[in-house]
Amino acid sequence: MTYHPKSDFMQVMMQRGYLADCTDYQALDDALRAGVVPTYIGYDATAKSLHVGHLLNIMMLRWLQKTGHKPITLMGGGTTKVGDPSFRSDERPLLGPDEIDANIAGMKRVFAKYLTYGDGDTDALMLNNAEWLDDLNYLDFLRDIGRHFSVNRMLSFESVKSRLDREQSLSFLEFNYMILQAYDFLELNRRYGCLLQMGGSDQWGNIVNGIDLTRRVLDHDIYGLTSPLLTTSDGRKMGKSQGGAMWLNADMLSPYEFWQFWRNTTDADVERFLKLYTELPVDECNRLGALAGSEINEAKIILANAVTTLCHGAEAADAAAATAREVFEKGGVGDDLPTLTLSADEIGDGISVVQLFVRSGLVKSGKEAKRLIAENGARLDDAPLTNAGLILDAGTLANPVKLSAGRKRHALVRVAA
Questions:
Q1: Degrees, nearest 5: CA angle 270-244-241
Q2: Does the residue 240 lie in any domain?
């Protein structure tokens, strides 16, 4: 379907590639032109930080606010106790209340960088669905809400169907998740006038359930909009790398490593990522994405600088770029590289270089470190490292030592003063 939107927000969604599907293009477009549309995205508190995989939807909320509407970031203090089964092969581990609260505190730090919170018409709201889920009466909930759900229909949703088709167990606990998420939309509409839920395309069934429930209970028209589930051009899930998840909190992933992740974008993804993860004009994204040969590297630096500035601030982006220039162009040791600091006691009579590669986070195991060395992918102070049995003593580590895994991943090892 080709739809030509008139609202600023829908134009941005289509022009920049955020839009996968919408429950009613015309009606939502009309609502966006008629006034402020409160819109929510839910985030279950499964970790202490959000990661790059969440960033596309955070940018959607940012554009929503920039085009005159009200973002609602809904923390899943209640739903995290159940766990979203969508497209998973197994049940999520259940977290306790203290761990959920700690995770929510870590996640909140990210949103404040992208959205303006406050009491104004278009100021963002931070809510927690534990507010209405924790005190539900089970029998009342079954009678008032459960009766609106068809098990036959719920079984037909792709997120559930794919799990059952693989003959993988789906617990009754998880099956309740989509009812709770639907109830979130109902409560947000009732309490805050929320008209739109956004999420990744894997949330389509949950979103549609919430729309149907709200129409049945309140007779209100509300809408759903989904974004594409992104993979990189080489097929990897967005936000994953050799080192694990690309976290958005600086205490879980340094701004330099975050910057480097974007700098290492493959050529084929540059234009798309500029449109999705920066606020550069679309024409400029097209121009930068069309660069060829070595010139595309300048576009990647622009991408890395812009995304890192939004997430960590301009100072952190500048420091990361300066470190990259020092490390890659001059062969030096940048001040902003991830650093492993050891005490004299830890070094003792000496510490193996394999252990240093593991402890610095460049590899996950000693076996991986030895394979990296055997395949000539490891360097020590920019010199090829060929001896996996090398032991470094306190004298060698008196000055910072630079470890490299391949051409793009580096870390410093230093001794505590």
A1: 25
A2: no
